[in-house]
Write a structure and sequence with these properties.
The protein has about 450 residues and is α+β, with helices and mostly antiparallel strands. About 45% of the residues lie in helices and about 20% in strands.
């Protein structure tokens, strides 16, 4: 017998062991598109949820710039608000995702929130201070405070803000690096903090520290990738601009030295070279600038027919295609597809230009649009050139990669970004000596969508 269950079962029973409920709450953060702040909110939710650890309030401090700074404080501000929140959160059918949404709204509410009270709290780190709350982070230990008002180690302003006799400080530490601290209490129920509560809260602290640590690593990786890309772009621009500038400068110097004794044809040749190199520089600058101006607004439905026909009728394409056969087969009528008409036109012209570069005179270029798939509209552009080597295929869409002697290396990367931004895709099929085919896949407009 085979029995199956879904990967994710949602809420566990309310009378389940707290360890299981806690694991369920935290595990659900992996199924949601949560930010670091949201993931930390999940931890605070787990600590304050009645079916979780069950503390009344949980505050979060984060280590930043050598100080421990107040970040967020989750929980009711008054006894009346506590009753209202507990009534909402105990409603049948309320799950943890809904609880997190409720808590997010609670934190973002203007005026009267607990978080406003701790935003100004800040304590130095690295001074081996014995004061609380920084002591827990400094000594990498959980601190359970009772009779707080009679304890001189508790910082006076902090005691004034938290306004309870008993609370628990949980340090967030990874690889001995202080990342922050969570402080929990039972301000309204006055329930004692048990040994089991401390163990469960400690587990939450370990996970919260891991969230912060991995979030910082991910941010550093993104920054490294950004700097690597900037370095690659700077290297590329330097390389691409140096040769044309040297050529322009050299021939301009010759013209400046010209006193009428040289052949006029040589002067004209120099001017033509300067013009050609200037246009090459313009092309580089245009493509770099164009790459950075992709649409950010949502794609809209449009008729691809005029876009394809305009690209094929472009005078530059017609002039360059002389000596080659262009076979066109466009299915009519064409469906409306999702995308950006002007940028899709640029993408098609780019692929047509590449096909012309790859196809020798006397050979054929094929352009085809098919409507057979129920969801996708496919545009194919195929050349009959030498094809793409296997070693180059994996790098084909990377910025600045080109197999052309004077190529910019941004065209196919630009096309790929356009297609991905409108929910479609680009696919390449190539065989050495048999040519290359690019397929653009566009999502069709759903029936019933407003036009």
């Amino acid at each position: 017998m085979i029995e199956t269950q879904g990967l994710y079962l949602g809420d566990v029973e309310r009378d389940a062991p707290k360890e299981l409920v806690l694991l369920s709450i935290i595990a659900q953060s992996y199924f949601q598109p949560f930010s670091l702040q949201d993931n930390l909110l999940v931890i605070l939710t787990a600590l304050t949820s009645g079916s979780g650890v069950g503390f009344n309030r949980a505050m979060l401090f984060l280590a930043e710039g050598g100080r421990l700074k107040g970040e967020m404080w989750l929980g009711p501000a008054t006894q009346e608000e506590a009753r209202s929140i507990w009534e909402i959160l105990s409603t049948p059918g309320i799950g943890y995702v809904e609880i997190v949404e409720h808590n997010r709204a609670l934190l973002s509410r203007a005026g009267g929130t607990l978080s406003e009270r701790i935003k100004g709290l800040s304590y130095p780190l690295g001074e081996k201070s014995l004061s609380i709350p920084s002591r827990a982070v400094e000594r990498r230990e959980i601190v359970h405070v009772r009779d707080a008002r009679s304890e001189p180690a508790v910082e006076s302003r902090f005691l004034e803000v938290i306004d309870v006799e008993a609370f628990l400080c949980i340090p967030l530490v990874v690889h001995d690096e202080p990342l922050g601290e969570i402080i929990v209490d039972n301000a309204f129920t006055r329930a004692p903090i048990t040994e089991k509560d401390i163990k469960l809260a400690s587990m939450c602290g370990l996970i919260a520290g891991n969230y912060i640590y991995t979030g910082a690593i991910h941010k550093k990786m993104l920054e490294m990738e950004k700097f690597a890309a900037m370095g690659e772009m700077a290297s590329y621009i330097t390389h691409q601009l140096r040769n044309p500038l040297v050529t322009i400068g050299g021939f301009a110097d010759q013209l400046l030295r010209y006193e009428g004794g040289e052949d006029r044809r040589k002067s004209r040749r120099n001017l033509e070279i300067i013009r050609a190199e200037t246009r090459r520089l313009e092309d580089i600058v245009y493509k770099l600038g164009h790459l950075l101006k992709l649409e950010q607004k949502p794609p809209a439905a449009f008729d691809p027919g005029p876009v394809l026909k305009d690209a094929l009728a472009d005078p530059a394409f017609r002039a360059k295609s002389k000596g080659r056969r262009i076979k066109i087969r466009l299915t009519e009528p064409m469906p409306r597809v999702m995308g950006y008409p002007s940028q899709v036109g640029e993408a098609v012209r780019n692929l047509l230009d590449n096909a012309l570069d790859a196809t020798p005179e006397g050979a054929t270029i094929y352009v085809q649009a098919t409507n057979a798939d129920p969801r996708w509209f496919i545009v194919k552009i195929k050349d009959t050139g030498r094809g793409i080597a296997d070693k180059d295929r994996e790098r084909l869409f990377l910025p600045f990669f080109t197999t052309k002697e004077n190529g910019v290396g941004l065209g196919l990367h630009f096309v790929k970004r356009i297609m991905e931004s409108c929910g479609g895709g680009i696919e390449v099929r190539s065989r050495p000596g048999k040519g290359t085919e690019f397929r653009l896949s566009f999502i069709k407009e759903e029936r019933g969508t407003d036009q």
